[in-house]
Amino acid sequence: MQVGAADGGQLHADDRVVGVLDSTTWTVDGKDEWFLACLRTWLETGTLEHDTSHVRDLPALPETEEVRLGRALAEQLRTEKAIMGVFDEGCMGMYNAIIDDELLNPLGIYKERLSQSELWAQMQTVPDDEARAVGEWLTDAGMTFRFGSDPDTELTEDQVMWQYKMYVAAGDASSESSVDN
């Protein structure tokens, strides 16, 4: 049984290994009556049924360049396959970030699981000038940052430098693995 709480007040539980389908509910703080009633129902019955009367079939798509491209890319994935790099999915309780292999594989997409610990270690080796080059590229492309000086309440240059180092380390990890870039 896997139960995960995620940012945004989502509670998700499932046990696919033994064929139990997933159940999901949402809350702001876990105290509202609707959420508590959903949780009570799930604990008593093992499932939640949500109102889906608003759900409609996707209408036929027009024959546009975008639709043709989407269909061609989908067919390419089915025939050529792709490997997606994933850093320790679910390690921070973000169960909603996990895409089950059973759902992904039929689309032609497979996962190579990469180590978040290794990513952190590699971030320590990225030179500042290489990280700064990432920031220069972003600002040259039009991104604007409003930096402050208090790391507890404001975005600081130091915090963003670490993010740049993560980008570089993630790119390096991707290049050194069998992940499709």
Describe this structure in words.
It is a single chain. This protein has about 180 residues and is of the alpha+beta class. Helix content is about 40%, strand content about 15%. The chain has 6 helices and 5 strands, in the order E-E-E-H-H-E-H-E-H-H-H. The protein has a 3-stranded antiparallel sheet, covered by helices on one side. It has a two-stranded parallel sheet with strand order 4-5. A hairpin with a 4-residue loop joins strand 2 and strand 3. Helix 5 packs across helix 6. The longest helix is centred in the C-terminal third of the chain and has 20 residues. The radius of gyration is 21 Å and the shape is extended. The two termini are about 35 Å apart. The N terminus is likely disordered.
Main attributes of the structure:
6 helices, 181 residues, disordered N terminus, 17% strand, alpha+beta, extended, 5 strands, three-stranded antiparallel β-sheet
Fold blueprint:
Blueprint: E1 2-6, E2 10-15, E3 20-26, H1 33-45, H2 65-80, E4 82-87, H3 101-104, E5 109-114, H4 116-123, H5 128-140, H6 157-176
Parallel strand pairs: 4-5
Antiparallel strand pairs: 1-2, 2-3
Helix pairs in contact: 4-6, 5-6
